[in-house]
């Protein structure tokens, strides 16, 4: 599907070949998260378009996502609040543990729920104006979209606690040093690099990509011995796949592999 385009309630989806770009499209709200945005992500990642092999997440209007839309924030009873949070967890898991590699091209605000979305993606690129922040302490609330697992795993519980207590924000270079970003680039360079990396990743062997997405994070939750055993299983499965056969043939024939 060349240059395909579709519109959700809070996002735009553009498809160029086998690369899909999901654009958070609430620029007047700095792409703040609401139920419509979560619903759009749910719809896409529950059933990705056929033929898509990599996804880019980015935001319209100079911001990635500024977190919870407080203007639409509802006071919920405790049980309803748990269900609401757990739904956000489910959608973030669709991103992190889905079949597709996902790249975040980040500009401006990457705050609260926006940071939770970003850390569920597999590659993160930050432009100079990026600000990473967890301001929930200044709002009288607590993170509910997975930050205590995803953000804490990246930067550590101690630093995350300090971020929440003080509302401190970090820029692109600091985020790079902390692991919140994998690349720090110049203004206007995040989306072009995301497209370049998406092309490179989409050209990998599909099953190899799948194993990297599914296994590595889970192994980090396991004991040492369980993790090593799971690594052996993943290695054995990949080495007997069609992708491995093509990779070996390409190496012996001194050419680039063609996995798809």
Automatic annotation (TrEMBL):
Keywords from the UniProt entry: Lyase
Taxonomy, superkingdom:
Bacteria
Q: Which InterPro entries match?
A: ClpP/crotonase-like_dom_sf, Enoyl-CoA_hyd/isom_CS, Enoyl-CoA_hydra/iso, Enoyl-CoA_hydra_C
SUPFAM superfamilies reported in the protein's UniProt record: ClpP/crotonase
Q: Which CDD domains match?
A: crotonase-like (cd06558)
Instruction: Write out the similarity annotation.
Output: Belongs to the enoyl-CoA hydratase/isomerase family.
Name the record gives this protein: Crotonase/enoyl-CoA hydratase family protein
